[in-house]
Amino acid sequence: DTEVTQTPKHLVMGMTNKKSLKCEQHMGHRAMYWYKQKAKKPPELMFVYSYEKLSINESVPSRFSPECPNSSLLNLHLHALQPEDSALYLCASSQDRTSANYNEQFFGPGTRLTVL
Amino acid sequence: QKEVEQDPGPLSVPEGAIVSLNCTYSNSAFQYFMWYRQYSRKGPELLMYTYSSGNKEDGRFTAQVDKSSKYISLFIRDSQPSDSATYLCAIPSYNQGGKLIFGQGTELSVKP
User: CB of A104 within 8 Å of any CB in chain B?
Assistant: First the structure.
């Protein structure tokens, strides 16, 4: 199984809502990533988990809260978002992120988020 | 100066043309170079990667790295309408925790 799955595919939420995005992989990967992608822009890294510990937070606002319950799952909790947070949210995983090896990241299909 | 630069296009070619997609980078310590393909409304998928300098071929696709000029290329031979997508070069930066540094992406359209 070389797939990263993400749910939901689409999400519309108001600025006062709380919602969560979910990501799952069963490739035994120990690094998982959240990216945000705006139209016609490259993915922008938000968070990296390595061995279930948060290792990189790219100065993301606290209204985005990541969680890694186990090595296969990654969540992104959303609260009090702004309309400018509307984007495609991509999850990715890789074997690890050590400096010794190239590190292919497998991406999921993304969740298209609209904040009203 | 951005660490990885890529012309965003868009690039439109007729079916059967040879396509050349290019990126430049600034850090001579970079060693792995990747090309991702992203169809509209989908996640990126890894197309090819190369290590250090040289060429790598996979079917109609050839990835080329010239470390002396810090230039990476992706060539697509006999382009097909199904190749229409955005192509992103990406370089892992190990002194930034393995972070992937993406180019802007080039939007390619292959017309039948």
Answer: yes
